[in-house]
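Why Histidine--tRNA ligase? Reviewers of the renewal asked for a concrete example.
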Amino acid sequence: MAKTKAFKPKARRPRGFEDRSANVLRAERALVRAASDVYEKWGFEPLETPAFEYADALGKFLPDEERPNEGVFAMQDEDEQWMALRYDLTAPLARFAAENFQDLTKPFRRYQFGEVWRNEKPGPGRFRQFVQCDADSVGAPGPAADAEIIALASEVMGAAGLGQGDYVIRVNDRRLLDGVLESLGASASEARMRVLRAIDKMDRLGREGVELLLGEGRKDESGDFTKGAGLDAGQRTRVLDFLEAGGGSRAEIIARLEAVVGDTAGAQGVEALTEIDAILRSLGVDETRAAFDPSIVRGLGYYTGPVFETELLATAQYEDGSPIRFGSIGGGGRYDDLVARFTGQAVPATGFSFGVSRFAAALSALDRLDAARPDPLVVVVAAEKDQMAEYFALAAELRAAGLRAEAFVGGGNMGKQLKYADRRGAAFAVIVGSEEREAGTVSVKDLALGAEIAAQLTDREEWAEQRQQFTVPRESLVSEIKARLSRD
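Here is what the prediction returned.
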């Protein structure tokens, strides 16, 4: 009788998900630490909500209101209620604020970072799971709270290693466009949402593509057709001209917009931007850091007032010398109706969010996140297998002195262990064999120096003359390694 072949699952990663390596994780964690330090300094409190929320608490606030409860990973619990992995961190905040409304000190100022999941078609740089980092004020009415969030976002950019000219926060108010649509007779809910979605694609599709979406619709390269907002030629031109009314100082743009919106609903937007400008100026956030831009609308339907996006202006280079442009790395705005879905009463709120993975990848490419670099590693070589206790004690002594150290446990000869230390990018390899033990010394290979010398030399004899290996008294090991790291 033939033996049944043992099942061996294929090692494969689900589409749209990624494995994040050590250098990626260090960059992301360093960025989150930098942002968290800013949020704490400004008086925001940390919060953590569950990965799952009930689907009916999320559905209304998904980016596509025509597909409620789609775009999420959902399952039924033991009570046959549908739960979904959170799509963002804002809807869970709204649920938390509503559930604990009476006990919260308002405004409730919270920050949160964590994984979010989106059941959407994956693509290059578009994953189904990623990390977000948010800061929000719930119960904070008026433009002053919005201005604070914008200034907070600017300080996060600085804490992440960006300077003047490396980024700009583009600010608008959704009520300005509402005023334009009102004057055109196109302020109905469905038409408004289609206009907002079309405008939100301006940076990707340009004026021509957006004009198609403002009209009858647009067919993309794959042949998929997106229904448009149905505006006529004159209406489309007026909307597009409004979007291109930016440029110049914040005061100049306010004056220009004031003339465009007149006494429509957009007048409230002009008032809000005027107050935001005054507060930003008092905080030293000038036009190079925060500019007014009527083309910024943000696609999500729940924004009700000021909105903003943070654009990364700094560029890096691909290997062929062509520039890498990063575009938008975060954004936010005012959403006064989000908590009201649970409470039945309007609760003002405003906040800022950025995608940690995307932002950290950009900072790494720009070499701007020094805190992401790990401390130099010291590997204690297992020169004699019966002396492992000594090697572990030596590694512990190095760690107690504030150094990053490990004792090698993988097996193999000296050459294999030194190769391991090289591949780990270790700065030093520490060797204690019988000769060193008898002499009360330690041999140390300066691997960083060795790599530097190897890159410069071609002559084997010249290489042999270099002193990348040295011997020190056992009691001087820690101080000698610290001294060499300090010199480096």
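The CA atoms of residues 328 and 415 lie 48 Å apart. This is the kind of structural detail the renewal will allow us to pursue systematically.
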